[in-house]
Amino acid sequence: MEQKLLNIGFGNTVVAERIVSIVSPHSSPIKRLKDEARDEKRLVDATQGRRTRSVIVMDSNHVILSSIQVETIAQRFEMLKNGDRGNGADKRRR
Predict the structure, then answer these.
(1) CA–CA gap between residue 32 and residue 80 (Å, rounded)
(2) What is the C-alpha to C-alpha distance for residues 54 and 20, in angstroms, rounded to an integer?
(3) Beta strands of the chain (E only): which ranges?
(4) How far apart are CA 56 and CA 81, in angstroms?
(5) Nearest C-alpha neighbor of 56 from the set 5, 93, 94
(6) What is the pLDDT at residue 17?
(7) Which neighbouring-strand residues pair with 19?
(8) Per residue in 38-88, pLDDT tens?
(9) What is the pTM of this model?
(10) Under a CB-based contact definition with an 8 Å cutoff, are residues 6 and 77 in contact?
């Protein structure tokens, strides 16, 4: 079975089938989730030192931070599900 990789910014990818949710980092419950994941060594920071704009929760309970907007990652995820490359390429260019 081929695993589809979702680009979450700056050359970082995750296995799309393992994503549980993609959420904004601004609510208190998500901040607590991020802090708990850090304490339990389940946090992956893929922001490359930039501001966190989305939090990706995986089925393994890992929490991944990305500096790409939630909407952008969701669009890439949908494109990947629909058979497109999922690298963020704009559909208007095709």
Answers:
(1) 30
(2) 13
(3) 5-9, 12-15, 19-23, 43-45, 54-58, 63-66
(4) 17
(5) 5
(6) 96
(7) 58
(8) 999 999 999 999 999 999 999 999 999 999 999 999 999 999 999 865 454
(9) 0.86
(10) yes
